[in-house]
Structure formats: C-alpha cells, structure tokens
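Re: beginner question about structure tokens

> Can someone show what the tokenized structure looks like for a real chain? I only ever see the sequence side.

Sure, here's an example I had lying around. Input first:
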Amino acid sequence: MTTIDQPLATVATRPEPADRLQTDAAPRRRGIVFWIVRYLPAEVAGTAAMVVGGLLATLWTDAPTLIAVAALVGEIIGFYAVLAVTIYIEQAPVSATRRRAVGRTAALLVAEFGAAELLDTFVVRPAALVLGVWLIPDPLLGMLAGKVAADIVFYAVAAGAFTVTAKTGLRDGRRPVGPQEVAT
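And the corresponding structure tokens:
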C-alpha cells in the first residue's frame, strides 16, 4: 500500500536537469491555445456545477438569494476541483512526495487565483453585473455581458499570477513554495 509520504519517483517522472530548464533569459511565450487548454475545462466544470447547485437548491427553497449562493458555491467547487487536479498533475513530477505535491498544489492555487478571486468576488463581478444589467435593456444579456467582462478581468489577473509563478521558478521546482520545502 502506498502512503502520502511515499516518494513520487514510483509513480511520476523526475524533473528535467537544471541545465535543460528554461531560463529567464529566454522566456517562453504562451499563446491563446495554452490559456484555453488551461482554463476552459475548469470553466466548463464550474459552470456545470453552478447550474446543478442552483437547480438542486430549488428543490429545497424558492429564495433567490439562497439559490444564487448554492449556484456560486457549486461553481467554486467545480472550478477549483478541476484546477487542483491540473496543478497537482503539473507538480507531481517536481515534488519528492505526494504530500509535498499536495502542498505545492495548494500554495500555487492561492498564488495563481487568490488575488484574482478576491478582486473578482468583492469588486469586479458585482460591478460588472450591475453595469451590464443597467446598460443593456435585456437583463439576461446584461448579466451575460457582465459575466464575460468580469471573466476577462479575472483571467487577466490569474494569467499574470501564473506567469509570475512560472518565471520565478515556483512551478517547475527550481524554488521552494513554502517553508516546509526550505527546511528539507
């Protein structure tokens, strides 16, 4: 039986030697396809979980606020579940143990999405939705326009944070993510 502390060498490949890693002198440009492949599955899962969460809430309540909260919670769970798996798969080869890969995954989720999520939840998304509904006569189209505008800001911040974590070596294991990796 395997444990969470078992070295990942038994289940994953080791990282490339340092001389083969990309340096800051030759930054890698990421095209639109990279970002679509990275974020679209999470967006689809989040949207599906939002619909399911909202619909399930209607079985117990007619309160629009509770239905909206259930939909929001569903979206967050679906979105971040897919991204957690994505980042874990990315981190497994550069981590000595499963526990370290899980820790790196959690730290990188916060680093990549923390600022974007806070800004999105408390400032951008509410403002974009209100503006969309206020500026566009059809409420559904207004909400969709607000969602798209908020998503653009969210992904711009998240992609910027991803780029920072990649350029600083946090993603490829060149630099430790947390204090537990510095000590070992």
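Each token stands for a local structural state, so reading them left to right follows the chain. The longest helix spans residues 98-135.
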